[in-house]
Amino acid sequence: MLVEEVIPVAVIVDKKKAASPWINHIWVPARVVTGLPETEPMTLVARDGENESYYAGSTSLVFASTETANYRDNLLTGQPKLWVVLRMGELDAYVSVVAVTADPAEGEAHTESGSNIVEPLPMPPEIAAQLAAFVDRHHVEREFFKRKRDRVNPDALAHRRPGRGGEA
User: What is the pTM of this model?
Assistant: First the structure.
C-alpha cells in the first residue's frame, strides 16, 4: 500500500549576471525552505550588487513509500540533496517551479527534456530529519531478483534452404 507524506516548500532562486555576450542573466536555484510565504511568485527578496534573489514559488515535496530505497541512499551520502526543477518563462524574464524531490532518480529524470533547469541543493536539516523518520517507518528491504533468460534454440535461427519448411 502506497503511503505518502507531503511537505510544503518554497524555492529561492538567484538571478545572476551572465558572463556571456548572448544572454543578460542566468537563473540558478539557490535554496529550499519549508513553509509557504505569503507573497507572489517572482517577488524580489534580496539584492547584492548585480545579483538578485527571488522567491520563485512553492510546491509540495512528496515522500512516497515506494521510493524509500532511493531516499535512504540519498541520506547515507552524508550530505543529502533536494533536486529543484525550474522552467524558464517567456524571454527568460521569470522561472516557475516544476518540482522539488528527494529522489535522485526522479531528479535525474527531469534533466531528460532539456528545457528544465535542474539543480541539486543541500537538504535543510528539518527536511532531512522528516525524511529519515519516513524511511524508518516505511522502508521494506526488497531482495534483488534477477530474471533468468530462456534457453535459445539454435535451430530456430538457422538458415533454411528454399523449398523446405513450407516455403515454395
Answer: 0.81
DSSP lists the bridge partners of residue 51 as 48
Angle at 120 between CA 113 and CA 143, to 5 degrees: 85
Sheet strands (E) in the chain: 4-17, 25-34, 43-48, 51-64, 81-88, 95-101, 116-122
- Residues whose CB is less than 8 angstroms from the CB of residue 19 and which lie 6 or more positions away in sequence, other chains included: none
Distance CA 67, CA 135 (A): 9
pLDDT reported for residue 81: 98
Helices 68-76 and 125-138, axial angle in degrees (round to 10)? 130
DSSP at 166: T
Q: What are phi and psi of 64, to 5 degrees?
A: -115, 135
pLDDT tens figures, 107-154? 999 999 888 999 999 999 999 999 999 999 998 887 777 888 888 777
Residue 14 pairs with which residues in a beta bridge?
A: 28, 53
- Of 62, 63, 45, the residue nearest 54 (C-alpha): 45
